Amino acid sequence: MIQQLKGDDHGVGHLGSSRDSGVYEEVLDYLIGLRRLDWSVTLSPIERRKYRNVIFAKLLKNRHGELGREVALDLGSQTLEITENQDRTIDESDLDRIARTPGGRRR
């Protein structure tokens, strides 16, 4: 399920983000949402640079437990190796601007 989200909840997906989400909710045990802020056209090139090759992931559904927090995953540009970066966070002002952009445009 790939969905371009509107500005709700700072672009963070949820099960209601997709059409017929009730069908997905019934059959899925787990759902992981991914986002890349370096693809945002709302942010300037300088602002996007700080999120370059970073994927933010969050468990949106866990039938057997808690949802947890969003984590930053660095994507190696040469190796495509994915590693968690516990020091990387999202600037709240960036999220606020992205959330206010009509239609959640992306690059």
Structure description:
There is one protein chain. With 107 residues, this protein is α+β, with helices and mostly antiparallel strands. It has one domain. The protein has 3 helices and 4 strands, in the order αβαβββα. It has helices at residues 21-27, 45-49, 92-100; strands spanning 30-35, 54-62, 71-75, 82-84. A 4-stranded antiparallel beta sheet has the order 1-2-3-4, with no helix packed on it. The radius of gyration is 14 Å and the shape is globular. The two termini are 19 Å apart. Residues 1-9 have low confidence and may be disordered.
Low-confidence stretches: 1-9
* Oligomer state of the chains in this structure: single chain
- DSSP strand count: 4
What's the helix count? 3
The rounded distance between the terminal residues' Cα atoms is: 19 Å
Shape from CA axes? globular
| Count of structural domains | 1
Question: In which range does the helix fraction lie?
Answer: 10-25%
Specify the structural class: alpha+beta
| Biggest sheet statistics | 4 strands, antiparallel
> What is the mean pLDDT?
78
Give the amount of beta strand, in percent.
15-25%
List the secondary-structure elements in sequence, H or E.
HEHEEEH
Gyration radius (Cα, Å) is 14 Å
Query: Which strand order does the major sheet show?
Result: 1-2-3-4
